[in-house]
Specification:
This protein has about 300 residues and is of the alpha/beta class. It has helices at about 5-10, 50-65, 75, 95-100, 160-170, 190-200, 215-220, 245-260, 260-265, 270-285, and strands at about 20, 25-30, 30-35, 85, 105-110, 125-130, 145-150, 170-180, 225-235, 290-300. The radius of gyration is 19 Å and the shape is globular. The protein binds S-adenosylmethionine.
């Protein structure tokens, strides 16, 4: 997966500096590859290391929920002609699994980063490069089911209701909208964990770290959504969770290592000190039984809307 992109990356990765000329799809900062939308603040890179982290995160979440989705749509997914949209699809981990489980359904993934394979992919999968914050490039009432997971670093605090309206617009009447989010601020934390997780203040960046607790009310306020269901869960790190906690801690280590360019600046510490603290955090996450709240909210679009 992504071999063409890896080759392109190897050829065009410059020495530490910003380079926006080489490829209009990407920009390169200190040897890492990022999306190339100037106005978008989403801080994580999109290179092979981040793709690997996203795949790992997908498997963690599937294990935690013991499923890939919650909406009551299995029968619809088995019907020919069903259309599904995955918003902020990232590496496409969710979409590839879903597409292989439901071959009659056509899946579309949207993301600002065109990191998904363009040729070697299932026939029932398409990817579109688009900025969700500018509206989705689809007609009203297009999709039977829309899934969106972990966009808390992407959607400004005040834009969530607008985005939920936009997702509802492209959903067919009777279709389901499902959002999964996490509280990035963990509970039962050690002292170094506290420091690292409070770096890069999301509120100051105009984001909403507590969106996970607000989704339900935003859904309920959207007049074309009904039967709103909220399911709560935890992403745990503690030793009692065995390999799950270990894998979650490793995924968090990777996330912090990929966010290092902006977090290190915020903490005003050396690169070495950042790495030392990250090692301590990974230990603390296990020792203190740290966990994150995660939440899945889904609802049906009313039959008589738009
Ligand atoms: C944390 S990743 C989640 C990926 C995927 N949903 C998953 O759960 O595996 C967030 C994704 O949102 C994408 N993204 C960020 N801002 C976006 C925007 N304005 N429009 C579309 N996609 C965006 C990023 O490129 C990234 O792939």
């Amino acid at each position: 997966m992504g071999n063409n992109l890896s080759n392109k990356l190897k050829k065009s990765t410059p020495s530490p500096s910003i380079n926006m000329q080489e490829d209009p799809d990407f920009r390169f900062i200190n040897g890492r590859r990022y999306h190339n939308f100037e106005s978008i603040k989403y801080p994580l890179p999109n290179d092979d290391d981040e793709v690997d982290r996203l795949h790992q995160q997908h498997f963690l979440l599937r294990y935690v929920w013991q499923r890939n989705f919650a909406s009551p749509i299995k029968h619809v997914l088995n019907q020919k002609g069903t259309k599904v949209l995955d918003v902020g699809c990232g590496a496409g981990s969710w979409i590839f699994e879903m597409a292989s489980n439901y071959p009659n359904t056509q899946f579309t993934g949207v993301d600002i980063s065109p990191i998904q394979p363009t040729e070697i992919k299932p026939r029932n999968v398409d990817f579109v490069k688009a900025n969700l914050l500018n509206g989705l490039p689809f007609e009203d009432n297009t999709f039977d089911y829309i899934f969106q997971r972990f966009l808390f670093l992407a959607i400004p605090k005040d834009s969530w209701p607008v985005i939920i309206n936009e997702l509802t617009r492209v959903l067919k009447p009777g279709g389901y909208l499902e959002l999964v989010e996490i509280n990035p601020t963990p509970f039962q934390t050690g002292p170094v964990t506290d420091q690292l997780f409070s770096a890069g203040d999301l509120r100051q960046r105009g984001l909403d770290p507590e969106i996970v607790y607000k989704l339900r009310s935003y859904f309920e306020k959207q007049e074309n959504l009904e039967n709103v269901i909220e399911e709560k869960n935890k992403l745990p790190y503690g030793p009692e969770t065995g390999k799950l906690g270990q894998a979650a801690a490793e995924n968090t280590r990777l996330g912090f290592s990929h966010a290092k360019p902006f977090l290190q600046k915020d903490l005003n510490i050396s690169s070495e000190e950042y790495d030392n603290r990250l090692d301590i955090v990974v230990k603390e996450l296990r020792e203190f039984g740290t966990y994150h709240d995660i939440c899945c909210v889904y609802a049906r679009k009313t039959q008589f809307s738009y």
